[in-house]
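INFO batch 0412 | record 1 of 1 | parsing
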Amino acid sequence: MTEPAPSSASGRIARNTAIFSVLTGLSRIAGLVREVVASSYFGTSGPFSAFTFAFQVPNLVRSLFADAALSAAFVPVFTELLEQGRRREAFQLASTFIALIVAALTAVCVFFVLVAPTLMPLLTGGEFTPELDALVVGLSQVLFPIVLLLGLNGLLVGILNAYDHFTIPALAPLVWNVVIIAVLVVVRPYFDGPDQLYAYAIGVLAGTFVQLAMCVPVLRRLEFEFEWKVKFRDPRVRQVLALMLPITLSLGLINFNLLINTALGSTVSEAAPRAIDAAFRLYMLPQGMFSVAVATVLFPALARLATRCDTAGLRRLTGTGTRQIFLLLIPAAACTLVLAEPITRLVYERGEFGPDSTEIVAEALFWFSFSLPFAGVNLLLTRTFFSLQRPWLPTALGAATLVLNLVVAIALVGPFGIAGIVVATAVASAAMTAGQAYYLRRELGGLLEGAQTLRAVARMMLAAVALGAVAYGVWWLLDGLLGRSLPAQVCSVGGGLTAGIVAYAAAVLALRVPEARQISGLVRARLRRSA
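INFO prediction complete | emitting tokens
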């Protein structure tokens, strides 16, 4: 099978990324709606910070034992079998891991549910009241079973991605969020006071089950056959597990960072952990729409190129993906930098979420913006290492940047509070990007189209300055004219963002950024075909 020419491959990447971004964007918007609904009920209260802790711990365990880590380790090996025409063996391997996941993760869930009364108060560091600690324990016990469900989901999504099927994996989170919102709204009145957060936890559990169930019909269409005779001694099982250990640590470090931020935030105030989490949800909207889309679409292609030992193709594909992520996330970062407070006010400020909450969440969002492009590129570079089945390098780099994040956060949290915690995340993200690019260059025997990428990024930065100036200017003008009712805020923030994005698009096209011209050509071609 001949690899497409670079221009053809770039066009395909742009098309697949656009489709996946739209689907993922809908899911992220639904997630933001979920956050808005929950924030209107609970604001940035101490009990909501307790929920943040209760959710992040099983989420960390999930990242260590299941979901993305398992998928990232499984896809290269599964893809290699498919490339070699060994379909039956590929299905045998998947079946073995389904049985292994059910056995191992059920034991993990039972263990954590039993030790939660001892473990969770230790993790809060004594900063919470006994009542809040009890709430953290109870909520975490409801949430821990998602580890098993997400483990199975990670494997099934890996199988679908290996077949270049991305639709259901992109749509399932949308359904997940809808289910959570519905359960929260319907079930919350059956609880009183802080216990109403149990409705949120039940919704997360129900949504995760539905998300898993959505993958099954697609597997049937792919004629996937579960093999009841599992083979735990298959050498490929050991190969996946050997890959999974460093991948687990690498991806888990991201959630360790979140847990560090939450723990240090609790030393600032009871509201700080929830404020940081609320800002993180806004930060993740463009991250999910763009960088996750690019990394997910490219991962199976990277794995195929690695299987063929096509280092030139890997360099080219990684370079193209990196520039596309920068093209999309640099303007997103500029938007949240200049409009952090208006965006936070529009999205969150209602019900129990008042102006004080807006102020601290906007502060966190402002500083998160600096890490956005770096975090996006890190997703792609890490998956390039995974495709090469060399996961220990990003794992070691991730551990080093985790220490860097902790040291900088501890140094800055005293004088700067929430801002210091989030700045540490940005510093660690930038260091991770630099380290991965350096070592990936050595792995692939040459530059990742470095000069071309630097020239493109410089032009994107110039265009982002224009975006920031136009977006803030239009928002400021409309805000003064229309006031701050909800419709007025929609007009002023929406108008500012729209004007800024138009200015950015015009600037990158005028500056002849190749990736921008590819997307423009794709849009024009689609319009001509639909005319």
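INFO post-check: The chain has a mean pLDDT of 82.
INFO record closed
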